[in-house]
Amino acid sequence: MKKFAITLLTATAIMAITASATWAQNMPKKIGYVTNYATHEWYQNVIKGMQDRAAQLGIEFEVRDANLDVAKEVAAAEDFMSQGVDVLIVTPVNEEGVVPLVRRAKEDGIPMVLEGNPVKGMTTMVAICDYDTGYHAGVAAGQYAKDHLGGAAKVMNVGLPLLSATVLRSNGFMDGLKTIIPDATMVHDLDGGGNPDRALEVSSAALAQNADINIIYGINDSSSQGGLQAWKAAGKSQDNLLVVGTGGEGLGFINMMDNEPSYQIEAAMFPEKVGFTAIDAAVKLFNKEEVPPHIVSPTSPMVGKDSWKQFYDLADNKRTIKWDAVNALVPADKCMKTAADL
Amino acid sequence: MTELSRSAPQVSPKLGWLTSQTQLVLLVTLFALCLLISLAAPQFYSVDNIIAILRQSSLVLIVAVGMTMLLIAAEVDLSVGASLAFAGVVAMDVTNKTSSVTLGVMAGILFGGGVGLINGLIVTKLRINSLIATIAMMMMLQGSVYLYSREAVQNKHLQPLFTWLSTGYVGPLPLPVVVTAVLFAIGYVVLRHTTLGRYVYAVGANEKAARLSGIRPARIKMLVFIVTGLLTGLVGVILCSLMNAGQPTAGRGFELTVVAAVILGGTSLTGGRGTLLGTLLGVLILKVIDNGIIILRWDQDLQMVIPGFIIVIASYLDLLRKKSNAS
Amino acid sequence: MPQSLEARVDRVAPIPRLAAMFRRNETVLLLVLVALLVFFTIGSPTFMTTRNITNVLGQASIAMIAAVGLGMLVIAGEIDVSIGSLVGAVALPLVVIMNATGSLELGIISALVFALAIGAVNGYLSAYLGINSLIVTLGSMFVIRGGIYIYTGQKAIPDDLALESFYQIGNGRLLGMIPYPALVALAVFAVFSYMMGHRRFGRQLYAVGGDAEVARLAGYNVRQSKFIAFVLCSLFAGVSGILLSSRLGSAVHVSGLGFEFQVVAAVVLGGVSLAGGIGSLGGVALGVLILAFLSNGLGMLNLATEWQQVITGLIIIGAVGLDELRRRRG
What we know:
The complex is a heterotrimer.
Chain A: H1 2-24, E1 30-35, H2 41-57, E2 60-65, H3 70-83, E3 87-90, H4 99-108, E4 112-115, E5 124-127, H5 130-148, E6 154-159, H6 164-180, E7 185-191, H7 196-209, E8 215-218, H8 221-233, E9 242-247, H9 252-259, E10 263-268, H10 271-286, E11 294-296, E12 300-303, E13 312-315, E14 318-321, H11 323-327
Parallel strand pairs in A: 1-2, 1-3, 3-4, 4-5, 5-11, 6-7, 6-8, 8-9, 9-10
Antiparallel strand pairs in A: 10-12, 13-14
Helix pairs in contact in A: 2-10, 5-6, 7-8
Chain B: H1 2-7, H2 13-40, H3 47-72, H4 80-98, H5 101-125, H6 130-148, E1 153-154, H7 160-167, E2 169-170, E3 173-174, H8 175-193, H9 195-205, H10 207-212, H11 217-243, E4 245-246, H12 254-264, H13 276-295, H14 302-326
Helix pairs in contact in B: 2-13, 3-8, 3-9, 3-11, 3-12, 3-13, 4-5, 4-6, 4-11, 5-6, 5-11, 7-11, 8-9, 9-11, 12-13, 12-14, 13-14
Chain C: H1 5-12, H2 15-43, H3 50-75, H4 83-89, H5 91-101, H6 104-128, H7 133-152, E1 157-158, H8 164-171, E2 173-174, E3 178-179, H9 180-198, H10 200-210, H11 212-217, H12 222-248, E4 250-251, H13 259-269, H14 281-300, H15 305-329
Helix pairs in contact in C: 2-14, 3-9, 3-10, 3-12, 3-13, 3-14, 4-7, 4-12, 5-6, 6-7, 6-12, 8-12, 9-10, 10-12, 13-14
């Protein structure tokens, strides 16, 4: 009983300290986020995570969309600065293209959090580790290939050479795969444009050329979907196929895991969590706290049909993140490889 | 130029010879491409690959049938890419909600037709240049598709019939290819052997003269816009079935591929001149190049560069032929 | 398209009446702009601030410079849809030469030479060989963009030396207030607006765009005029590209994607007819400003992109439709 009382006391004390620590932080009044592509499901869920966290902390939150246009991104950030936001969060359309913007925000004394990609001169960035995400999915895929595909691994990479992040995912996937199956090969390296119709088209040609492909890796869910649909359109059976998607961006991967026998692995990147972490980082910057240059947001491969249910609820065509499960994931301190290693 | 387009509505023997020349050059180009690619990569002639090329070509060709008629009537529609994405979203959503593939497909096709109708009204009633009108329509569709659905609409109905639309076979041929062949044949006959077809040429060649001879150009143009819209809706449905989802992001740049193929096929941008056979060859050439670049494992960025050159060269050759014929 | 001779003469001859019409068109556009400004000022407290207005002028100037060039080309009866690719492409010689020599001037010169060369190729193929300019420039749009991707391996090229002068041309402000790009845009606009309205240069472009055959009979060199318009259009797109590159601090391979649509939309919104021969640079400038303030203001009202796209599309159709209606009545 006494022991229990002490535990209770300690717990209360810890909670009080944590709470007061939270209260000690000044909250910024307004945070502005310039996203690079608001209509993409990934960013919609990043924004959802940001909105949830900002509402919890009582911060006003606004979003502008660059719609994949670097010039528009710079303009949107300028607009935010002249409007007077306390902290700016930016997902660069291109990491070189916002270097002058970072400098101007500094000159204006507006703290800035980068999301996704590092930029020269920045203070901090919130991002997942792309290479690691691919790598762990690759290890899982290797295990699956060993158990179900007779140890063969001939990969069609539905990639996107345009972005260093997506190149890192593909490289990580192959490296992880090779730890289990050393003679795994990338049979075809494609530019699927990151969108399903382009991915479908290029995959159709590649599948027609290479009959021995048995693993399709997509750098995002649209790419894996395009690859898989090309496979189905060619009239092939999914018996000896493994499809691995990346992102867990929206509802697409859940639908495929539920309905496509070959879609067994998803390298989930939890966009909601990225948004959550970015708002926390913004609050820290606002309070001039020490922050590491790269704040890692956790990722995890989901392996097997029902694995997504561990992290998400699905009702009325809306997914809700299970914060307890996702917040319990421990992010790496440091990425195994970054764009600087390419 | 003026003389030629004036005589275009009547199938003059001279013009017939000219167009067949254009098609001959395209045909030779197509064979040469196939030969060269297959020498370097024998898998080019595999059944799988040919079916893949035909399926990809069919999507472009269906819309290109309408676009050819539009260009002949001296109009253009750049909203087809955005429209087909929206049509796919609508088709999947309606099928999900009603569990009826028929209703879903109808909704998708009618949506496309509706967009065509609005385009036609803007162009013929407000008299706005169709290039601008359809760019504006493209913007509005790209925006409003997200007002309709924030996310890609996934296949919840799991109706095999819906998947069959894109992956099914009729005998040895994929269903989309068969559908395309039928639509192409209808388009070919209408354009070549009916009064309506002659009217389309007449309106594009010289609107004023057409009006004076009792044709109502606005009606003809409306009709062609609607037909292009319906065909676009159909492609939206097939693409949606092929991707197993209604993707709001689908179809980006599709309009340029279609226009490029039609122009490559010898249809004049200024109206009054063009053939569906040329369009067919134009589509096949572009898609064989796309396919060949992947099969040969060339830099995929060339998929952008090579068609660019080919279109300019083809137009130049066409111009040279016109000149030599005129002199 | 062939027309009766009366119709042709009708289109070129009554200059005073046309001039009156331009003024009316510009008045309408000006009213639209003022209405937008009033609406946004009421809607957002931070809209009508010196900071925000100068910001928007700086942002609009990139499109403005290119739009002056394209406006003249469209008036001359041709079009160039490769300017978006060119805006991205000029940054390559600019940054590469600047990195190699440490000289901003050499970088700018090579960028402009590159732009001139592209303009000359487009102009030669269209004006002298007679290939439809939409096709020619659609072709060069693909070739240039593909070329950028191949040359850069789809990566941006950073400005390694971080030259202060390079940063300043796109980001600096005169007296800490007026962005330099806005000054460049103003100068370009003022000079060429005068040239188009009051010099032989302008009359020639209007005549050539209105009816090439009549222009030839009037003693103008049609091919040469069109060629010059192509070269100027590319040159101005090159200037836009240089300023944009400074704002981006690098040569970004994806910059300028879709830029041609924005500029064409602004030019047409400004009352320039795609058939050639009709329009004014004053209208073009208003078209650019309307679209720029629309984008800024709708953002300030916190409206999502999808609404912005829908509204922009509607305004283009509305404005062009109105213009067309008035033209038919007048």
